[in-house]
Amino acid sequence: MFVSNIRIPKCDVRRSPQSPMIDIDPLKSYGFQRVTCSLQKMQTNEKLSVGRMFSVQDSLPKLPVPPLDQTLQKYLRSVRPLLTDDEYANTQKIVEDFKRDPGPKLQTLLEKRAQRETNWLSDWWTNTAYLEFRQPVTVNVSPGVVFPKQSYTDKEGQLRFTAKLISGLLDYKSMIDNQTLPVEKMGKQSLCMMQYYKILCGCRIPGKKRDTWVCYPPDEANPPKHVVIAHNNAFFFLEVYGSNNQPLSIEQIYEQLKNIVNQSMEPDIPVGILTTENRNKWAKAYELLTKDKENKASLQILQRSICVLCIDNKLPESAAGEEDSTAAKMMLHGGGSEYNSANRWCDKTLQFIVGKNGVCGLNYEHTTAEGPPIISIVDHVLDYCSKNENMTTPAPDLKPPKKLNFNITYPELRENLKEAEENIDSLVKDVDLTVFKFTEYGKNFPKSQKLSPDSFIQMAFQLAYFRLYSKPCATYETASLRQFQLGRTDTIRSCSIESLEFSKGMMDPTLSKQKKAELLKKAVTGHKNYVAEAVKGQGIDRHLLGLKLAALQNNMKVPALHMDVAYSLSCHHNVSTSQVPAKYEACLVFGPTVPDGYGVCYNPQEKQILLGVSAFNCCPETESRRFKDSIHQSLMDMKSVLEGSIQSKL
Q: Which end of the chain is more exposed for a tag (fewer CB within 10 A), N or C?
């Protein structure tokens, strides 16, 4: 198995000590095992050297360390809209001091790290952003994805769709296993495909101070050949390949699922609900569970599985027009102990969810991947399921499913379960989530105005927030760094001097549509330029984080720059956003990253935009429907000023 990070074909790899093809050295800074794979060893595995998926992997550039002065100048410009004049003057002084000391020392340390590592950021980011995060992964880390509603209405239809979904997933997995997935591109630039390699057969494991992440890749001696099915809180081992490594047919999978459902007609012990807990609490419960041999074996089967597939029984009633939002909540958190939150294993990298009456989707643990690889699977599986013909043939030597047993013998574990139920129910009540379709236009309109659709939509978010609160806020948008080896993300700072001027202008009744259109175009252009810089490794947030971590790793004080109010404000993302385009009407949803914030994910299609907006009920100042309405109004107003501007020129 791999632990934490992998790279193909020349790489540092994290594997278990049982692997015979590697040499293991201590990686003291993380407490993991570091593995150095020589090219000669990697080339003994023919699959790894010939597949299209990794054909350009080793030729991808390494993530650069941006020039220090460049980052600091961009930083000052980005925080200006968030600060008073006095605060900004103070921040300018702090930045100038940092530029003299310790900035250059930290920059040198970071540059030396970049020379040593395949990617100077990837390990730090995995640990800082994910594995060291102690709050529940549910809502706070793991996004949910809602699929278009399916046509089934009864249990047989639910199981037949599930069988087809599993078959479609195995069809996609064969492309990963054989490394025949085509290399993705951004324009002409090839992208790192490592995230695709890690989304199946991976799992997070709780730890008291830091979690670990394991992956069982297809090139190991005994790769996983099973999925885990969750039904009525019970978990079942289901081998999905026959003896000749042939995937089971759809009909065979369906019969196996019927067998599982018949074995689990009554709710089981809700062990899965422990995975929704605070990570420290879950780690303590996990330690107790593993003292029992049968529990330990069941946990290993879960962790080694290709994925978890959850067959849900209950679905809350929805008010008219709220069906999509209710479905999204099932994908994000399961609805609490009364519904499906115990019918999950939230540590699993990927878990598909098939509910009643056509409601379905997935949830994914975020440690290993961003949205694009997940949506790639979604599009493939839904394409597969849309085909009516059953072309699969039966596999030989079908093995019956086996129930995973858990012994809850310790009184503390029973208390843990009770507390976990109370905590997830409290979290579910706090989540305010609205999914909606903006159908007035899609990305075709900004394209017709020769404007970036993404930048256009981001300015709608800026205007929507300003309309409600009469002030700008720090805004996060995901920038992909996948044109670099092992690249993950940087931050696009959508709030800018130009976006604030645009927002103020739009709310000023004395300005003409012509002037408002000019401000809009200027703000969109500014955002587009920042995006272009960020995806080329010239963003500022990961660089600033790297400077801070370099200080901590070298026993230096946290720099004053990182303790300044400007840094805190600019990292407190009241609006956290991500664009996740999909072929189908699929919508990704996630929770806000701060208690008084919003989470916004959007799928821009040609003639409509699908959006998921979240907030927390505990904050009286935020409300998802109110922000949704403001986004809708902003999109309408922006179209109006552009069209009015065109007419005024005629």
A: C
Counting Cα atoms < 13 Å in the Cβ hemisphere of 492 gives: 26
Taking the C-alpha atoms of residue 196 and residue 479, their distance in angstroms, rounded to an integer, is: 18
Residue 38 pLDDT more than 80? no
pLDDT digit string, tens, across residues 60-87:
999 999 999 999 999 999 999 999 999 9
Phi, psi dihedrals of residue 76, rounded to the nearest 5°? -60, -40
Q: What's the pLDDT at 646?
A: 64
Q: How many helices (H) and strands (E) would you count in the chain? A: 22, 22
Nearest residue to 270 (alpha-carbon basis) of 152, 111, 425, 434: 425
Q: How much is the pTM?
A: 0.91
CA 497/CA 610 separation, integer angstroms: 28
Dihedral, CA of residue 73, residue 76, residue 80 and residue 86, to nearest 10: -130
Domains delineated in the chain:
2-50 (no CATH), 140-432 (3.30.559.70), 439-579+620-649 (3.30.559.10)
Alpha helices in 492-540 (DSSP H): 497-506, 513-533
Q: The tokens of 626 are what?
A: 């109110």
- Residues annotated catalytic, as ranges: 366
The proportion of the chain whose per-residue pLDDT surpasses 90, expressed as a percent, equals: 86
The Cβ of residue 224 has, within 10 Å, a number of other Cβ atoms equal to 24
Look at residues 219, 213, 212 and name the one whose alpha carbon lies nearest to residue 197: 219
Provide CB contacts within 8 A for 13, sequence distance 6+. 2, 5, 6, 7, 22, 35, 36, 37
pLDDT digits (tens, 9 = 90+) for 549-566: 999 999 999 999 999 999
CA torsion, points 159, 162, 167, 170, in degrees to nearest 10? Answer: -140
